[in-house]
Amino acid sequence: MWYQTEVTEKCGIQFPIIQAGMAGSTTPELVANVSEMGGLGTIGAGYMSPERLDEEIQQVKRLTSKPFAVNLFVPESFDYTEAAVDDMNDHLQSYREVLGLETPKPAAHDEDVFKRQIDVVIAHEVPVCSFTFGVPSTEIVTRLTAAGTVLIGSATTVAEAQAVAHAGLDMVVAQGSEAGGHRAAFQQEGTTSLVGTMTLVPQIVDSVTIPVIAAGGIMDGRGWVASHVLGAAGVQLGTAFLTTKESAMKPVQKQAILNSVETDTVVTKVLSGKAARGLRNPLIDDLENVNDKVLPYPIQNDLTKQIRATAAQAGNVDWTHTWSGQGARLARETEVKQFIHQFITEAQLQVDRLNV
Ligand SMILES: Cc1cc2nc3c(=O)[nH]c(=O)nc-3n(C[C@H](O)[C@H](O)[C@H](O)COP(=O)(O)O)c2cc1C
């Protein structure tokens, strides 16, 4: 069958359809239902403590015996001053007053957490582990590979994809600029050189020998078949899964995506300190006006996250982050099993038409 590729073979799955590990937006039900349908569900574990990750893996394993993945953030170095933190906190004070929040300090960001997340992945013999924001060290790649875990890296340029391949990972996600959420970029500013999926995928396919997974703007079967024609051995979808019943995104945010159009998103660094695509809102507009005060990731994220979480909880989409890709018009209010069934049916229809 056309959909049997190196991705299905290496991951031990039926269809090369990967649900992106979206930190903060996945649930064990989302992950398990994708895997139950023959795709690859992914726990978005970037912000999880090792203890929480351990719990989530156990929950997923209770729901499915099929392969699944864990997605982690490769830690980066960053620099900031207390004065810059105070400056940004002063700017955010008016939001905290309305929401009744204390002024936070940046979190500790102990690199040991990443090593302990890897220990949990190995202890549970997780079949697949994907990474974003960089390439894990040789030591980590060697340990995971020895444990039998299939490794997926993420890239937004040809050079990044080559770095992923060179580091010995098994596959690479080619993340086009249409993609929702944080950009995987680790060699250059995520807000510049935005290369779209249709341009990026074939150039990466021509430049590496490992299988390439297309991501960014793939919302229906047409996007899957187009990616396949461009040489991708699989697809990774984020936004399309956000509006499923099983995603952890708040109902008001799901509705905002369902009501949005292709021009409603922006790539911005102001919410977290790292380039991410989401629905433009008044909080983004306000912070863009003080762009020079924005701290690097993950410090900016630490300073804004309580405001965003409290606002989302209260149903206020103006002061939160609603990460979303440019394919918003194609988003559906659905359930995972129904979505995957339709996605496969649509793709097969396109393949049948191409054969005529
Ligand atoms: C809400 C949201 C959160 C995301 N979080 C992560 C993450 O934690 N790790 C990661 O590798 N990619 C993350 N991504 C990016 C996805 O891996 C993927 O590149 C993107 O969703 C593909 O584009 P699409 O949203 O148009 O499908 C996130 C995307 C969204 C929409």
From TrEMBL:
Superkingdom assignment: Bacteria
Biological process, per Gene Ontology: response to toxic substance
Keyword Plastid: no
Alphabetized InterPro entries for the sequence: Aldolase_TIM (IPR013785), NMO (IPR004136)
Pfam families: NMO
Gene Ontology MF term list: nitronate monooxygenase activity; nucleotide binding
Alphabetized UniProt keyword annotations: Detoxification, Flavoprotein, FMN, Monooxygenase, Nucleotide-binding, Oxidoreductase
Catalytic activity: 3 propionate 3-nitronate + 3 O2 + H2O = 3 3-oxopropanoate + 2 nitrate + nitrite + H2O2 + 3 H(+)
Cofactor: FMN
Record-linked Gene3D superfamilies: Aldolase class I
Tagged with keyword Flavoprotein: yes
Annotated function: Nitronate monooxygenase that uses molecular oxygen to catalyze the oxidative denitrification of alkyl nitronates. Acts on propionate 3-nitronate (P3N), the presumed physiological substrate. Probably functions in the detoxification of P3N, a metabolic poison produced by plants and fungi as a defense mechanism.
Family of this protein: Belongs to the nitronate monooxygenase family. NMO class I subfamily.
Name of protein: Probable nitronate monooxygenase
